[in-house]
Amino acid sequence: RDVPAAPPALPQQQEAYRMLYTRPRQDFKQLTVTLASGESYTVLSDMGFDAQGNLLGVYNGLGQPVVVQGQEGFALDATSYQMMLLAAMNLPVTASYPGLDLEACGLATPSARLEIHYHTGEKIVLNIGNTTASGQSCYVQLAGDEDIHLVPVDFRQVLTRPLTAHHRLPGPLNKAASTAVQIAIVRPDGETFIASNYGTSGRILPWQVDKPYVHAGSTERITAFVEAVAAIRAEGYVATLSSAADMAHYGLDTPTRLLVAYSDGTIRDIHLGSDAGDGTVYARLDATADVYRVSAAHLPQADDAAVDALLDRFVALVSSNDVASVAIRAGEEAWLLAISPEGYAINGHAADADVFSNAYRAVVGMQFDKTTKDAPAVEEICEVRFLHGDGTITQVVYHDFDHHYVQAETSGGGGFLLRRER
């Protein structure tokens, strides 16, 4: 229901911005929050001080001044623990009113109850009520105080959240794709795809696929993968796993892993689990035991791909979306696959989309298994010319090599081998 705004303050009740109470931070011992839902948690001060009250540091590896009792590895969001410390040390009040209706202010059944203990033995109890009609403040009552106070609304917004909402959420990496040195995709069945950035020295392309075969990698496609993985962020915290057995519940016992390593030593390691609903997937980010939800829409489409499909994706000689036509000549026969606003055509004749796509992908997505510096055989098997949208041409000439391989020479000077069955 609508909650009435606080009544107009009498002149003698109007106050400037003030602190409801003030306590030294070295006196703070613990804070217990009990929500209207019944959920309760306690945070303990983990700060160290010298005899003069100067802060020496914190005792935990998380770098946070408080820890959650019983969950000392719980990584609190900075905004959350800063608000908890604010509540322990002082509380800013913009106005105070006596005799307000507790039910109308949401204080008969408060949204949250805060119990703050100090090393001196003192205890402060605060009840947090509704938001005011203006939306800028909330009603707060201090135990033993007849007045009801207005406190900035962000106090309520933070301290009425469930504990899971206080967890630090990994965000996107601030890394340029050009600094990536290796990518890897590890499937649940153990099959692994690895590509490394060796730079351009003595190479046509900086990226090379190292596993499961040796290929020249598509810089454009691998860069797009790196950018997508670096941009992944957690949408929400779910749980912290205490044992390997807990992983199965989230599909993380046999995850798909997406890894990107950067030149400064940073590694983005994402384990993808089962569907979490609402368009999200359970995931572990960067080798922690914490489970988060990440948006399925932001994931690179690599989780269900077989290794051959990954090779097609990252190793194609040219990017399929920038080719206007493909001309193929083999002996006395020739084909022209063309894409235009009018549709698909083979040798100038309109073609069914499925028929065209099968032929187009078979040529554009040709996979190379090995690089070679051997001189090609004189006799040509066939020639393929890719006309790009910008008018440039990439040419590949195929030569006989041996019983197992055909040799391909590109217009960029590259020499590759591909298995005959391809």
Short précis:
With 422 residues, this protein is mostly beta strands. It is 13% helix and 41% strand.
Show the helix and strand layout.
Layout: E1 18-22, E2 28-35, E3 40-45, E4 47-49, E5 55-58, E6 66-68, H1 78-89, E7 90-93, E8 95-98, E9 112-118, E10 123-131, E11 137-142, E12 147-152, H2 153-159, E13 180-186, E14 192-197, E15 207-211, E16 215-216, H3 219-231, E17 236-240, E18 256-262, E19 267-277, E20 280-285, E21 290-295, H4 307-315, E22 323-330, E23 333-340, E24 343-346, E25 349-350, H5 353-364, E26 370-371, E27 380-388, E28 393-400, E29 405-410, E30 415-419
Antiparallel strand pairs: 1-7, 2-3, 2-9, 3-6, 4-5, 8-12, 9-10, 10-11, 11-12, 13-14, 13-18, 14-15, 15-16, 17-21, 18-19, 19-20, 20-21, 22-23, 22-27, 23-24, 24-25, 26-30, 27-28, 28-29, 29-30
Walk me through what this model shows.
The chain has 422 residues and is mainly beta. It contains five helices and 30 strands. A nine-stranded antiparallel beta sheet has the order 16-15-14-13-18-19-20-21-17, covered by helices on one side. β2 and β3 (40-45) form a beta hairpin. The longest helix has 13 residues, at 219-231. It is elongated, with a radius of gyration of 32 Å.
pLDDT averaged residue by residue = 87
Tell me the helix content: 10-25%
Low-confidence stretches: 1-15
Helix/strand-derived category reads: mainly beta
The biggest sheet, with number of strands, parallel, antiparallel or mixed sense and barrel status, is:
9 strands, antiparallel
Distance between the termini: 69 Å
Over all CA atoms, what is the radius of gyration?
32 Å
DSSP, total strands: 30
